[in-house]
Amino acid sequence: MRDDIFSKGNDLVNFTFDAKVADVFDDMVRRSVPGYQSMIEMIGLSVKTYGQDNTNYYDLGASTGATSTALSVNNTNSDNTIIAVDNSRDMVKKCQKNLSNQVGNFEIICTDIKDVLIDNASIVVLNLTLQFIEPEQRQRLINKVYNGLTPGGVLIVSEKIHFDDKQKQKEITNLHINFKRANGYSDLEIAAKRQSIENVLITDNKKTHFHRFKLAGFKNSVCHFQCLNFASFLAVK
User: Is the pTM of this model over 0.90?
Assistant: First the structure.
């Protein structure tokens, strides 16, 4: 379904992942996030390198299940369970429907990802999720993920990022706006969505992400993909 939520300027006071958003989410993210499909493809490919037999794969902030599907389709290991977690009941319903048609061994949990147990995981993914967690809670979540990973396991984090250099930030923001225009969003829609989401989605810079991984104990981390102001990080335990 096409995203036209903000086409009449009826913006949300604060952006929420309700039924209205769940219905158009796949179209929204594809038209709003540069390189989104490549992010999903890279997450899927990571299974071939980091997936381990007899372990769990976690999709934290699963939304409609695109990441969980990519993990499943690319999985060549045995005895794995894909655990999809989201705190939006509307998203969980959509995810349940999508995964039931495409994924074998999976479990969907409707809860806050800060409360979910991470156990015996070889892959944990936070795909455009950490940016919606309170900044002061982010290190604690990354620490919990690290503790729940098996040796050699991997955390993948994809996020909107910001740049400390004001001119660079301005240039990248303008390119991102033009990306959304090219995908059919009007200036009214772009402005309305920005207004609704600016107090909900709080970005970090690259340095902050790497610092969190280091504090948690990850032995190696890298930014393995970036398109404009969206980046994917891979941290190995």
Answer: yes
